[in-house]
């Protein structure tokens, strides 16, 4: 605590928990990317919105950057503090503040873990439906910052569809109360939606009011073994036509191999190059007949060569593990990740173009694909080969990512579907957004963060 700026912060806020131990700086200064050496000034743990406002005003006076921190499960470098910033951890702001049974909303603090939010909703017989594999560690504040989507976007949409209101601290320390839980509100600009997906560069979320909904009907899970990439969208079309889908996911044989090594059980006797996971409404004879009908149609057309339907909740969980366990199974390998999206109608042509790039540029690399094919979102994981150093590996991956970005631009896609731009994807932003759009974004950022202290360096560099 020898830094004069921290001493002044301590004098101003004697009750504020601050950590400067090297192990804490290392832990809180990074996210899952592991590509930057953490070097934060300190870690601050505010307990309420007033404390956040006071920290922001201190940061303005001292010209210290602030990096908001939740579960740090991001994959774009959005929570990295590598240039002497103060990390603002919302771990202590993790409470459920209110439940409104008429509006069917929960008001929560940003540090609440998604799984805890889901559990709180269930206590009232309702659900918060946005869901993904990192539910046990990611926070709602981080989900809002990246407009996280997850595995059930087909039915429920992204995070932004479920945010009824936000309280946000701007880069000047002002507290904005956005939308106030209203369903209809045409009184000017919807700043709430502007803040969602902004990666903490426009304001710090200190409170969120989330909408809840009824639990879904009983569901089944079906996994298809698919012999050819060209058949993936044919199976999707058949399932969407005959079933009430809540999720439709895909992964490759390489992904399956990694997740099986990690303890999952293979329901198939033979390996296929592609697999699809469909979750759909069940619970009646008509639903069961529809599912069997889809499978028989796909089998007759040659679009699948095997399949399995869950017969219990335990089997459904085991089948979902084949898809949800992929990221965890790859974590120790520290893959280079791309999180991209195109319109659903463009998926077949884009995937063919992408495969041609990888076969040409990555002939000796292990490439693991999976993703939310039902909403056009694909995740690409490149595994570092033995004998290739980290710097050379990243340089090679970024060379190929530039080619991928150009291909995405040709198809009207996005270099980041749900993980944000952060530090990792900054150089590719112009492939997704026009120069005019980026200029507008810079102007908005200047208004809401006039001193340039909010998550500096993320999304794009602020011009002097």
Commentary on this structure:
With 464 residues, the protein is α+β, with helices and mostly antiparallel strands. The protein has four domains: 4-91, Uridine Diphospho-n-acetylenolpyruvylglucosamine Reductase, domain 2 (2-Layer Sandwich); 96-211, Uridine Diphospho-n-acetylenolpyruvylglucosamine Reductase, domain 3 (2-Layer Sandwich); 219-327, 2-Layer Sandwich (Alpha-Beta Plaits), CATH 3.30.70.2190; 334-432, Alpha-Beta Plaits (2-Layer Sandwich). Helices cover 35% and strands 20% of the residues. The chain has a seven-stranded antiparallel sheet, with helices on both faces. It has a five-stranded antiparallel sheet with strand order 5-6-9-7-8. It has a four-stranded mixed sheet with strand order 1-2-4-3, with helices on both faces. A hairpin with a 5-residue loop joins β7 and β8 (175-178). The longest helix is centred in the last third of the chain and has 22 residues, at 390-411. The model has no long low-confidence stretch (mean pLDDT 93).
């Amino acid at each position: 605590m020898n830094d004069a700026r921290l001493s002044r912060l301590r004098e101003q806020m004697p009750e504020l928990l601050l950590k400067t131990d090297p192990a804490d700086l290392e832990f809180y200064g990074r996210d899952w990317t592991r590509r930057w050496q953490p070097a934060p000034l300190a870690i601050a743990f505010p307990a309420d919105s007033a404390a956040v406002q006071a920290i922001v005003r201190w940061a303005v006076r001292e010209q210290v950057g602030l990096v908001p921190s939740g579960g740090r499960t991001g994959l774009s470098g959005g929570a990295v503090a590598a240039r002497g910033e103060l990390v603002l951890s919302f771990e202590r702001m993790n409470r459920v503040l209110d439940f409104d049974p008429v509006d069917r909303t929960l008001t929560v603090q940003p540090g609440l873990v998604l799984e805890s939010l889901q559990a709180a909703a269930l206590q009232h017989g309702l659900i918060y439906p946005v869901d993904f594999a990192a539910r046990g560690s990611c926070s709602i504040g981080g989900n809002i910052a990246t407009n996280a989507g997850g595995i059930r976007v087909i039915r429920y949409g992204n995070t932004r569809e479920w945010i009824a209101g936000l309280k946000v601290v701007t880069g000047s320390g002002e507290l904005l109360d956005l939308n106030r839980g209203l369903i209809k509100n045409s009184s000017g600009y919807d700043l709430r939606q502007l803040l969602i997906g902004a990666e903490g560069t426009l304001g710090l979320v200190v409170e969120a009011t989330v909408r809840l909904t009824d639990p879904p009907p009983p569901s089944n899970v079906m996994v298809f073994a698919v012999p050819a990439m060209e058949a993936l969208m044919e199976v999707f079309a058949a399932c969407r036509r005959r079933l009430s889908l809540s999720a439709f996911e895909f992964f490759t044989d390489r992904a399956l191999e990694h997740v099986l090594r990690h303890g999952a059980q293979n329901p198939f006797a033979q390996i296929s190059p592609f697999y699809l996971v469909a979750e759909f409404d069940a619970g009646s004879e008509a639903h069961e007949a529809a599912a069997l009908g889809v499978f028989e149609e796909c089998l007759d057309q040659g679009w699948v060569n095997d399949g399995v339907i869950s017969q219990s909740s335990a089997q459904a969980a085991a089948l979902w593990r084949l898809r949800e366990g992929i990221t965890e199974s790859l974590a120790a390998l520290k893959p280079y990740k791309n999180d991209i999206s195109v319109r659903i109608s463009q998926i077949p042509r884009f995937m063919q173009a992408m495969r041609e790039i990888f076969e040409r540029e990555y002939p000796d690399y292990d490439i693991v694909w999976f993703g939310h094919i039902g909403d056009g979102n694909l995740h690409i994981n490149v595994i570092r080969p033995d004998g290739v150093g980290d710097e050379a590996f990243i340089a090679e991956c970024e060379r190929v990512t530039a080619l991928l970005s150009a291909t995405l631009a040709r198809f009207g896609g996005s270099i980041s579907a749900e993980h944000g731009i952060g530090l990792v994807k900054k150089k590719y932003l112009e492939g997704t957004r026009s120069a005019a759009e980026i200029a507008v974004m810079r102007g908005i950022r200047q208004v809401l963060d006039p001193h340039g202290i909010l998550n500096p360096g993320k999304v794009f560099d602020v011009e002097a």
